[in-house]
Design a protein that fits this description.
Number of strands of chain B: 0
Order of helices and strands of chain B: HHHHHHHHHHHHHHHHHHHH
Helix content of chain A: over 70%
Number of strands of chain A: 0
Radius of gyration of chain B: 22 Å
Structural class of chain B: mainly alpha
Order of helices and strands of chain A: HHHH
Distance between the termini of chain B: 45 Å
Structural class of chain A: mainly alpha
Radius of gyration of chain A: 20 Å
Oligomer: heterodimer
Strand content of chain A: under 5%
Number of domains of chain B: 1
Largest interface: A-B, 63 and 63 residues
Shape of chain A: elongated
Helix content of chain B: over 70%
Low-confidence stretches of chain B: none
Mean pLDDT of chain B: 87
C-alpha cells in the first residue's frame, strides 16, 4: 500500500513538473506573440496562473506525504522523544480535523460554482476544475494525516512507538 | 478574537504544526467563532490569494535557479571573477563573494549558491591554506547576498503581500547588495593582508578574455532578466519565464550538461518547492484578510501613534524582531506572517515600503546563516561535510559585517532609494 501510494505521488509530481515546463513555454510564447506578432494572448497568463494554483495545491499532497511542509520545529525537537511522539500524533489529529472541515467548506463552494457554470474570464474554461484542486488537496492531506493518527494509535497499542516518517524540510 | 488571531497561531507555531495549518486553523476558528461572515470566504481566499500573475515569477525563478545550479555554471563564474580579483590579498575569498553575488543574480536562491559555489570554492580555499571554519563560514554567509540582489524570490513575496512594485524593489536591492558584497570583500582583504593564505595571481588580459568567454552564457541570465525588466521589455513574471527557457537552452543545448530527464527532475523539484511556499501564501492571504476585516492593523497603528514611537525606534525594534524571527523561520514564511501586520505601521510612520522591503529582506538574509536554524548552515554542513559547530564559529565574523551593513541600510534610506531611482528607467 505504501509503495503504491508512493508511486502515485511520484506520478503526480511528474505531471506537475511537465505542467510547469508547459507554463514556462506558454508564457514565453505570449511574450514572443506580443512583441513579434503584436498580438497578446490574453488567455495565456490566465491559464498559467490557474496551472500554478493546481501545482500549489496538488503539490501540497506530495509535501504532506513526504513530511515536507514548512514548519518551525525548534521547540518540539527539544522535547524528550516520548513527548515528541505525542505532540506529532496530536498534530496529525488536528490536521485531520481542520483539513476535513476545510474540505467540507471547499466542496460546498465548488458545487455552487459548478451549478452556476462559472468559467474563467479569458479562456472560458469551467472554473470549478481549478477550485476542485483545493478540495482534492485538503481531502488527501486530511486522509494522510488520519492514516498517521491510526498508525500512532496502533503503534501505541502494540507499544512499539510510531513508524518512522521521511524527514521533511524544517525551519 | 485575540485568542484566534494571536494566542492560537503562536501556540500552534511553537508546537511545530505546518505553517499552512497554523494559518488555516486560526482563520477558521476566527471566522466560525468570532465573526458573522459566510464560511465560503475560506475557499474564496485560499484560491484567490494565489490567483495573481505576479506570483508566477516564484516557480519560474526557482526553476531557472534549479537548472543553473547544476552542471558547471558555478565553475565558469568562479574563473570569471577570479580573473579580475586574482592580484588582491584573499583573492579566493573575494572570488567567493563575487561569485555568490552573480549566482544570486542568476538564481535568487541562497541555498543553491551555498551548494554550488561551496563545492568549487571550499576545496580551493582549503588547498590555499584558509582555515576550514573561515572558508565554511564565508561560503555559508556570503551566499545570503543572493536574496538581496535581484531577482529575489522573497522580494516577490513581499511585493505581492504589501502591494509594492516588484521592479522597484528589485532596483532598490541592487546598491545595498553591492554595498554588502563590497563590505564583505573589504573584510576578507583586510583579514588576508596579514597572512599568506595564497599566492596572488597577476592580472592578465588574456585570462580575463578567456574566462569571460567561458562564462558568457551564464552571465547572460542576469543581463536578460534585469535588462528585460528595466528596459521595459518584460514584466518580472515574463522575465522569469524567459530566464527559465534560457536556462533550459544553455544547460541542455549549449553546455550539453543536462539531459531532458534532468530538466524534468528540476521541474519536479521546483513544483514541490513552489507548492510549499504558495500554499503558505494562500493561507496567509486568508489570515491577512481576517486581520484586515477586524481592523487589527489599524488598532496597532493607533497604539503606535499613542506611544509616540519614532521611525528610528520602530526600525530598531523591527530589526531586532526580524533578526530573532529569521533565526528560527525561513524568509518566505516570515514575510507572509509579518508583512500584513507591519505594513500599516510602516505607512503610518511615513517609512517608504520599498526601503522597508530591503530592510526586511536583509534581516531575513542574515537569518539564513545565523544559528541555530539558518538553512544555509545545514546546506553547508551537508555539502562541505563540516560539523555544525564549526560552521557556527565560521559565520560569526561575517555576521558582524552583515549587521554593520544592516545598520547602514536601515538608517541611510538613500542607499535603497537612490538605487531605486537609478535603476528604474521610467
Amino acid at each position: 500500500m505504501f509503495r503504491l501510494t508512493d508511486r502515485i505521488m511520484n506520478g503526480i509530481l511528474k505531471v506537475l513538473g511537465m505542467t510547469l515546463i508547459a507554463m514556462v513555454l506558454l508564457s514565453v510564447v505570449n511574450v514572443i506573440s506580443r512583441y513579434i506578432f503584436d498580438k497578446a494572448l490574453l488567455w495565456a497568463d490566465e491559464i498559467a496562473v490557474l496551472a500554478m494554483i493546481v501545482i500549489a495545491w496538488l503539490g501540497l499532497i506530495i509535501c504532506a506525504w513526504r513530511n515536507m511542509e514548512i514548519r518551525m520545529e525548534i521547540v518540539v525537537s527539544a522535547l524528550p522523544l516520548p513527548l515528541q511522539n505525542v505532540t506529532r500524533a496530536v498534530q496529525q489529529a488536528t490536521i485531520t480535523v481542520f483539513c476535513f472541515w476545510a474540505t467540507w467548506l471547499s466542496f460546498g463552494y465548488v458545487a455552487r460554482v459548478f451549478r452556476f457554470g462559472m468559467t474563467s474570464d479569458s479562456a472560458g474554461i469551467p472554473i470549478w476544475y481549478f477550485h476542485a484542486a483545493v478540495t482534492v488537496s485538503l481531502t488527501a492531506v486530511g486522509l494522510i494525516a488520519f492514516s498517521r493518527v491510526l498508525q500512532a494509535v496502533f503503534a501505541g497499542i502494540r507499544g512499539s512507538g510510531p513508524s518512522k516518517q521521511p524527514k521533511g524540510l524544517e525551519t | 478574537m485575540s485568542f484566534a488571531l494571536g494566542i492560537l497561531p503562536a501556540g500552534l507555531l511553537l508546537a511545530g504544526f505546518p505553517i499552512f495549518i497554523v494559518l488555516l486553523a486560526a482563520s477558521m476558528i476566527a471566522l466560525s467563532v468570532y465573526m458573522s461572515v459566510p464560511l465560503t470566504a475560506v475557499q474564496q481566499n485560499l484560491f484567490g490569494s494565489i490567483n495573481t500573475v505576479g506570483l508566477l515569477a516564484i516557480p519560474y525563478f526557482i526553476f531557472a535557479g534549479e537548472l543553473m545550479s547544476r552542471g558547471t555554471v558555478s565553475v565558469r563564474l568562479v574563473n570569471f571573477v577570479r580573473s579580475f580579483v586574482g592580484p588582491l590579498p584573499g583573492a579566493l575569498g573575494v572570488t567567493t563573494v563575487g561569485t555568490a553575488s552573480i549566482f544570486g543574480a542568476i538564481s535568487g536562491s541562497s541555498a543553491a549558491a551555498v551548494a554550488s559555489v561551496g563545492k568549487v570554492m571550499y576545496p580551493a580555499m582549503d588547498a590555499a591554506g584558509y582555515p576550514k571554519t573561515i572558508s565554511a563560514g564565508m561560503i555559508t554567509s556570503v551566499s545570503a547576498i543572493g536574496i538581496i540582489i535581484p531577482p529575489s524570490i522573497p522580494m516577490i513575496v513581499y511585493g505581492a503581500s504589501s502591494e509594492t512594485s516588484i521592479p522597484r524593489l528589485y532596483a532598490a536591492g541592487i546598491l545595498p547588495g553591492l554595498l554588502l558584497a563590497a563590505m564583505l570583500a573589504l573584510y576578507i582583504v583586510i583579514r588576508a593582508s596579514g597572512s599568506r593564505f595564497e599566492v596572488a595571481e597577476r592580472l592578465s588580459f588574456s585570462n580575463i578574455l578567456k574566462a569571460t568567454g567561458k562564462a558568457f552564457w551564464a552571465l547572460g541570465a542576469p543581463v536578460i532578466v534585469l535588462g528585460g525588466i528595466y528596459g521595459g521589455v518584460f514584466s518580472p513574471t515574463e522575465a522569469a519565464a524567459v530566464a527559465s527557457l534560457y536556462a533550459i537552452v544553455v544547460t541542455r543545448l549549449i553546455f550539453r550538461e543536462l539531459t531532458w530527464k534532468d530538466i524534468l527532475d528540476c521541474a519536479m523539484n521546483t513544483a514541490l518547492f513552489s507548492a510549499q511556499i504558495l500554499v503558505i501564501v494562500a493561507t496567509a492571504g486568508l489570515f491577512s484578510w481576517i486581520l484586515t476585516v477586524n481592523q487589527v492593523p489599524q488598532h496597532l497603528v493607533t497604539w503606535i501613534a499613542s506611544a509616540n514611537v519614532q521611525p528610528w525606534q520602530f526600525l530598531l525594534i523591527v530589526n531586532v524582531l526580524l533578526l530573532v524571527w529569521g533565526c528560527v523561520m525561513e524568509p518566505m514564511s516570515a514575510i507572509l506572517l509579518l508583512t500584513p501586520v507591519l505594513i500599516p505601521l510602516v505607512d503610518a510612520l511615513g517609512i517608504d515600503k520599498v526601503h522597508f522591503g530591503i530592510i526586511l529582506t536583509l534581516n531575513l538574509a542574515v537569518g539564513l546563516f545565523t544559528p541555530p536554524f539558518g538553512i544555509n548552515i545545514f546546506v553547508a554542513q551537508s555539502a562541505l561535510k563540516m560539523r555544525t559547530i564549526d560552521v557556527y564559529r565560521g559565520v560569526l565574523p561575517f555576521l558582524l559585517v552583515f549587521l554593520a551593513a544592516l545598520v547602514l541600510i536601515t538608517y541611510i534610506p538613500a542607499i535603497s532609494m537612490t538605487s531605486a531611482e537609478l535603476f528604474m528607467l521610467d
